[in-house]
Amino acid sequence: xxxxxxxxxxxVHCQGERFRLYLSEEEIQTRIRALxxxxxxxxxxxxxxxxxxxxxxxxxxxADLMRAIPGDSExxxxxxxxxxxxxxxxxxxxxxxxxxxxxxxxxxxxxEDIVDTGLSxxxxxxxxxxxxxxxxxxxxxxxxxDAAKVEVSVDYVGFDIDNLFVxxxxxxxxxxxxxxRAIYIxxxxxxxxxxx
Length: 196
Ligand code: IMP
Known about the structure:
Helices cover 28% and strands 29% of the residues. It is of the alpha/beta class and 196 residues long. The strands form 2 sheets. A 6-stranded mixed β-sheet has the order 5-4-3-6-7-8, with helices on both faces. The structure holds inosinic acid.
């Protein structure tokens, strides 16, 4: 990991806007290892959990989290609409692909990339609750506490972050930047310069 972590630039540009390094690859991976250990401990006596990754944003986090959980786990995916070209939530959640696995009686962990307004996480939790799982918990790599519009309880949180648009590690801006290994935050100073 050191060579890729070192290779992560401090500044990247996406869709003509400037973003600065916010969480390094090493910080992300260290936190995910801790979450994986925590989940393994919590489910040791409960049973095999099934991770439900919320596409597209959570595909990388879901893969890394699953590999950080020692012991058995299963995975499936649920696809919701993303922000598209915008940097703010439309406030509408659209389902694009349902979960294939039967969740009744299962120990389900919803895996999100980020909880922003909380509307998507609440939608997923409501949908899965209706399928009568044996237990249901939620994990997110990032959470923006200042952006919350609905209250959702999240059991495993990677990082609480500032209320600014972020990209990388699965998170996109107009479908780009998902491949970045670190997380980058919108550089507000460059925004101010542009509007001055
Ligand atoms: P929420 O429903 O507002 O909580 O946001 C849910 C979805 O919006 C996330 O799963 C992301 O796909 C997307 N999203 C929210 N904040 C950001 C961001 O800062 N950058 C990129 N995508 C975001």
